[in-house]
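Quick log. Single chain, no ligands specified.
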Amino acid sequence: MLKFSSIIGGPKGLSASPIRKIMALAEEKNIRALGLDPKRVISFAGGWVNHAAPEGLRAAYRRIASDAQRFHASGGYGPTQGFLYLREALAKVERSVRGVPGIAAGNIIVGQSSSELTFALFSALLNADDTVVFFDPTYAHYIEQAYLSRKTRRMVRVRAFDSTAWAYRGEDEILADVRAVLRKQRPKLLVFASPDNP
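-> predicted structure:
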């Protein structure tokens, strides 16, 4: 049996950004208002998700903060696509570490956040009659971003998780559903969420 559902006309019951709701829990007073001790809560609301920043990153911050010229430069806007040296470094990582052949700086855009970049991606790639496929579960903000981009109202979810068994469905089952969606819906875009962060 096919395990996907269509969402046409926008997400139901979303009155505010899911990320805004989650980020409200980054504020200690809101955690206390729930009757919880912030020290006993594992927070997924902030960027560090309750774990320490890598030492290499802290050292880089110290180098920038202790150099007046670098510190001043760090507050400026970058080019629209991001600094060329950074895009070249990211392309090198994609080629050498992740094995992505042929990727170059011109294939990369650096943005302020995944929300900004995903919204820009949807705005650039989609037209009103295009269909987008999301795997369920997916990143909380993706569906609203696609909806708010005003480029599409045609969204399909392929169920990857069985909430009854509390386990991922079998790979063959998921792939069968993906094939069915590709034949029936002919989507323009399939969106895969990173296991760690979009």
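The first strand starts at residue 4 and ends at 8.
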